[in-house]
Amino acid sequence: MVSVAKGIENETLMRPTQVIAQVLGDSSRLSWGVASCNSPLAAMSGPNIAAELARYLPATAVAASGDAAFARRVQSVFSTQWFRVYTNADVIGVELAGAMKNVIAIAAGIIDGLAAGNNAKSALVTRGLVEITRLGVAMGAQAETFKGLAGLGDLITTCVSPEGRNRMVGERIGKGRKLGDVLETMDSVAEGVPTTRSVRELARRHNVEMPITEAVYAVLFEDRDVLAALSDLMTRDPKSEIQ
Amino acid sequence: MVSVAKGIENETLMRPTQVIAQVLGDSSRLSWGVASCNSPLAAMSGPNIAAELARYLPATAVAASGDAAFARRVQSVFSTQWFRVYTNADVIGVELAGAMKNVIAIAAGIIDGLAAGNNAKSALVTRGLVEITRLGVAMGAQAETFKGLAGLGDLITTCVSPEGRNRMVGERIGKGRKLGDVLETMDSVAEGVPTTRSVRELARRHNVEMPITEAVYAVLFEDRDVLAALSDLMTRDPKSEIQ
Fold it and tell me: How far is it, in rounded angstroms, from Cα A63 to Cα A74?
């Protein structure tokens, strides 16, 4: 079984392969997302805007499984001349990156809505990757995964592509609209909105500092003014870049 | 003295602060880019499109110096409400990242010229960061620097912003024009073109694999067909993402 879903359940804080394993009734897989021999489990993720895949434009993805042979099998089944699949053993990192990047995409959309420019947006993506990596590592993911296609690659596409739903929610909020109004007028799901709740909760549980996620949460759910939230991020104490 | 120049000299393969130190006549600084007490040297770099800075849009940068006190002084002099400066001790990494990212930006422009989409471009930026980090580390830089604002941050801006000169050169080549024609009609310098020669030479000297840089070199200087070069990149042997 190959999961291509992205998100973190609000109530249980479970990843998609954990949900699948639970539904399949094997609780031994819950904590590590690795399948048994008779039903191997993988997560596929990467910079994969569906509309581009449907036009056969070149793309890449990651097939992650704790079962290396199954990861290679998924790689071989999905690889084509225009679709390049890499294997990865880090199911936790691939799934967390795919979910958490949607929170950063909402922030990127807010930058777009404010017309704050590409300098600001690139800084946001860079610092966003730092904070989602920090939480991922605290939860058992490999930092390397966040530098790869399912991390950085997917993050860039989601923050840059005009058609991204999460970025679009952010853009409308950046232009001054309220979350309820924005969601009412959309005919598809912006999974980054509920994911923001899950990521903030995980950050608190793991005691990880995530200033961008906190700012997105405050704007979405606490009616924080977007300009004030951006200004907070820009005027934190000056720091060394590397902690 | 604060260097804001980006590039690698073709003949000497020196970084800007090395050139400055040489011109100032202190050969002891050549190999490590750190200044003596009476003339400290720093390199500033980051996602800083000039047109956006001139409009006071929010931006971030890195002030790098082997002299930590001087780095903090540069940070404090340049920091404003809308311009956030981080310090970094890795002058080599900050300068190499700022130069090498222009080669990847040409490749990103080629993707744009081919209308190959954001999935492909995000993958290119992700794999591009991997290969410039690899060369940087082989030359004594810190891998962390490449994950930061002067690395990833600047790379994203340069690959995404329509006004980027290096990206624009790539876009025109991706649309089928020849390098000579493209450069003739530009009224500003696309430093990524000569930098491609320097980076390829450095990759050979340090025995580092840089498939994207090699592809850009082949397209720019060996008349390699752009579609063939892209296809080469997409059909390399399937791999694990993390080496």
Answer: 6
The shortest C-alpha distance from B25 to chain A (Å) reads 30
Find the length of chain B. 243
Largest CA distance in chain B: 54
Q: Which runs of E-coded beta strand occur in B68-187?
A: 83-88
The closest of A172, A162, A175, A133 to A150, measured between CA atoms, is A133
Q: What residue has token string 């939480």?
A: A135
CB atoms A126 and B152 under 8 Å: yes
Q: How far apart are the first and last CA of chain B?
A: 39
* Cα A178 to Cα A197: distance, rounded to the nearest angstrom: 17
- Find the helix or strand (DSSP H, E) in which B30 lies: none
Burial of residue B207 (CB within 10 Å: 0-12, 13-18, 19+) is exposed
Nearest to A156 among B60, B122, B234 (CB): B122
Q: Which of A6, A101, A175, A239 is catalytic?
A: A101
Query: Under an 8 A CB cutoff, do A119 and B79 touch?
Result: no
Interface probe, candidates B122, B133, B242, chain A, greatest A C-beta count within 10 A: B122
pLDDT digit string, tens, across residues A39-62:
789 999 999 998 899 999 999 999
Residues 6+ apart with CB under 8 A from B58: A116, A117, A119, A120, A123, A230, A234, B82, B83, B84
CB proximity list for A237: less than 8 A, separation 6 or greater = none
The whole-angstrom distance between B153's CA and the closest CA on chain A is 5
Q: Residue B143 has what pLDDT?
A: 96
Q: Collapse the DSSP code of B3 into the 3-class scheme (helix H, G, I; strand E, B; otherwise coil) and give the result.
A: strand
Whether the per-residue pLDDT at A32 is higher than 80: the answer is: no
Could you tell me which of B184, B183, B201, B202 has the C-alpha nearest to residue B193? Answer: B183
User: Token pair for residue B64?
Assistant: 């790098």
- As to burial, measured by CB atoms within 10 angstroms (0-12 exposed, 13-18 middle, 19+ buried), residue A237 is exposed
Instruction: Give A184's contacts (C-beta < 8 A, 6+ positions apart).
Output: none
CB atoms within 10 A of CB B94: 37
Whether residue B101 lies in the annotated active site: yes
Q: What spatial distance separates the first Cα and last Cα of chain A, rounded to whole Å?
A: 39
Name the amino acid, one letter, at B162. Answer: P
Cβ within 8 Å, pair A241-B62: yes
This prediction's pTM: 0.91
Task: Tell me the two tokens of residue B241.
Answer: 């993402």
Q: Which residues contact B95 (CB under 8 A, 6 or more apart)?
A: B3, B6, B15, B16, B17, B33, B43, B45, B64
ipTM of predicted complex: 0.89
